[in-house]
Amino acid sequence: MRQIILDCDPGLDDAVAIMMALGASEKIEILGITTVAGNVGLDAVYQNARNLCSLAGREDIPVFQGCPHSIMGKHVRAAEVHGSDGVGGVILPSSTREHDVMHSVDFIVDTCMNAEDKSITICPTGPMTNLAVALIKAPEIEEKIREIVFMGGVAFGPGNCTPAAEFNIFADPHAAQIVIQTDIPKVMMGLDVTHQTPCTDDRLNELKAIGTEPANAIAAMMEAYRRLVMSRDHGQNDCMMHDPCVIAYLLEPDLFSGRHYYVEVDTHDGVSHGRTLADGLSVSKKAPNVKIMEKIDDEGFYQLLYKSLRDLG
Fold first, then answer.
1. pLDDT digits (tens, 9 = 90+) for 214-227
2. Which CATH superfamily is domain 2-312 in?
3. What pTM does this model have?
4. What are the residue numbers of the active site?
């Protein structure tokens, strides 16, 4: 059983990751969902996370608001991909849970400090501002964290936010650099692997065929995702299941393969701002600090997603 904190900015693919995790309660215990401004603003991502828990019938899961912008105060958003509300205009049931007033950073710190050593897995699927600030506030929580499995970056290909950078890292590269330079074991689900998970017509139809209310909502979101992405990318279907790769790894790590590299983030202004720089040939002679996933069994991934949604009911 993995005890996780899911740190996210829902976001259409974040929504799938949340539902996938909620549908895998036999393997994953979600201690809390922390939200951070990213795909859309903080108020929207917070409410989306709450409403997704309501859709799944899991309003027992606490949801917290976190940082409203990056460490350096920049605002980078992706409403053109996720819709102005973050969920492509899909109507979700409104949460009736009382608002959890603790800040996301404080929840991360308090939860880790009260946990056994190496017991908490942190799963950032948005900008890593909350986690970076938590590590600055209480660096001793490093001893409590078993692993950080994050969606972000690209090691050996082009970016999707700039030619060099992936969105989550570009949105707060300073936070990503703080997290990546810790000694905590880290797994990177970057575009190198997530771009191998296209939501094709057949896969969308499989989602629809599940027939439950949560699966129907996810299918509607994926339709919106495809529509928005294809509109932006001139008809190309670049609708990929980026963030759910994090949850799939927790459930079935053998679906993925990758290698350890030394990684750092370019925080300087310029054309490579936000780039995740992977030392592919070990020319720096620095010890590897991140396991970068490079290949995925995409069909196995989708079968795992379908199962999680069916189990969610």
1. 999 999 999 999 99
2. Ribonucleoside hydrolase-like (3.90.245.10)
3. 0.97
4. 242
